[in-house]
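Posting for a labmate who doesn't have an account.
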Amino acid sequence: MFFLEVCEKSLHLSKIIINHIIQKMKTLTRLFLVLTFVSFFSGIQAQTLKIGHIDSNAIMSIMPEKATVENQLKDFEAQLETELRAMMTEYQTKITDYQNNLATMSNLIKQSKEKEITDLQTRIQEFQQNADAEFGDKRVELLTPVINKVKKAIEDVGKENNYTYIIDSATGVLLHVGANADDVTNLVKAKLNLK
């Protein structure tokens, strides 16, 4: 039972660390892109640029597809956890059987049982690693259409309103919002028919 808890905590901690690393990499990439744009266009007068900003988190949080995606991810995660628990139960059963019968086992049977337990430990570890990767892939698969829909709405708002740039303030890459910068979050919400 203790091993199951350790494995579950390890799986949860791995997810948190991976998500944190991905977020940091995204932030650094966005910062690099913004700095590149700023340095490239520094010679252009500010009057020719029209910059808007958006809070993509605010939009994503009210997308109608959000609940469906979250439910599908929860179901998928539950399937993975069910399989892991079954493997952990099998592992615990083999350990208990081994400990209870150790005194009466021949060396050959003892070695065979130890190999079974070791092999099962390896399968459990591999399953955890693969489950983390598969969950991440599933998340990307389910969120990509929603993200693409929001991106298209942002692009449409940018074209329709003649914006040179629209910066996402939710990513933390926003360096400065001047008084003349427009928050286009409501325009994108309207484009997506969201309230």
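Reply:
Got it, the structure tokens are right above this. The chain has five helices and three strands.
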